[in-house]
Amino acid sequence: MPKVSDVPNLGKAVVDALQRGAPDIDLNDLPILQDMSADRLTENVIAINSNTPDQRQKFVLEQLVKHVHAFAKEVNLTTEEWMAGIKFLTATGQMCTDIRQEFILLSDIFGLSALVDTINHPKPEGATEATVLGPFFVEDAKTIQIGEAIASDGKGEHMLVKGRVTDLQGKPVARCLIETWETDEEGYYDTQYGEFEMDCRGRLYTDDDGNYSFRCVKPVPYPIPNDGPVGKLLRSMDRHVFRPSHLHMMFQKEGMEELITSLYFENDIFLTSDAVFGVKSSLVTDPKLIEDEAVAKSHGFKNGPYWHLDRDFVLITTEESKAQIAKEREERAKEVSA
């Protein structure tokens, strides 16, 4: 059989579609699809997709088709449920804007974002664990010097964060860029206010010994966006929409694997039920309240008390990261084939 465009007496709709860029497929390359029974449908879909030139794309789509079809069979998906799902995904897309991604939020609440992050950023023993970036990172935050503040006055309870950044061997990572951002005491990021004015975020560099310190405020819990279809879904499952308080930190240094992580806080009411599954036990901290006014002022605060948090971070090299990813992919492949 010829290409589609070689077929005589094509209708105008087909010709128009080809002119608009529809694939002009060689019909000889297509499998013969005839039996569309429930038992054959999955293999037919996989067969028609088998000419996908990108082998990774081909593999991912093949597995997707298998799992989606298996899911529909396992739950005996009804036509009404299928249509409800279509309408939900349509509403999810309609909720997206340039500054809001409802599909990522959907991925978040099912733990998929956290899972993909963990798969793609595995850490060897001794390295600081990564967690989800979240939607509130902003480029071009103000650069501060070690010991300075990322938050203006009146944004919340004072907190000092200090520590050291090293590699797996304990050697300092000098001049490492640290990006950090957080909520104010009301539970809002600066980007959530009507008039955006950058606050409660900043960037700084470690010194030659890998040391860093900065003043900020103690973050508080906050809700994920819940006025759209994802929020409605959570309500239908009797789940809450809150994230525990946390301080975002991102580390960048040439030759080192970028680390995106967060610090969480002991005794937070949402620590064990994070709506987006971002909490890891190794990232939970317990800052100490310092009430001595003289000590507070020595760190640059106008007055006390303040929360004091010491936290070191361990980065891995890009080569160590590649080796760890390869190791874990091999282990997962063995599990799948077992």
UniProtKB/TrEMBL annotation:
Its cofactor is Fe(3+). The keyword Iron applies. Pfam families: Dioxygenase_C, Dioxygenase_N. GO terms for biological process: catechol-containing compound metabolic process. The keyword Iron applies. One of its GO terms (molecular function) is catechol 1,2-dioxygenase activity. Keywords: Dioxygenase, Iron, Metal-binding, Oxidoreductase. Residues 54-128 form the Catechol dioxygenase N-terminal domain. Residues 134-293 form the Intradiol ring-cleavage dioxygenases domain. Belongs to the intradiol ring-cleavage dioxygenase family. This is Intradiol ring-cleavage dioxygenases domain-containing protein. It comes from Apiotrichum porosum.
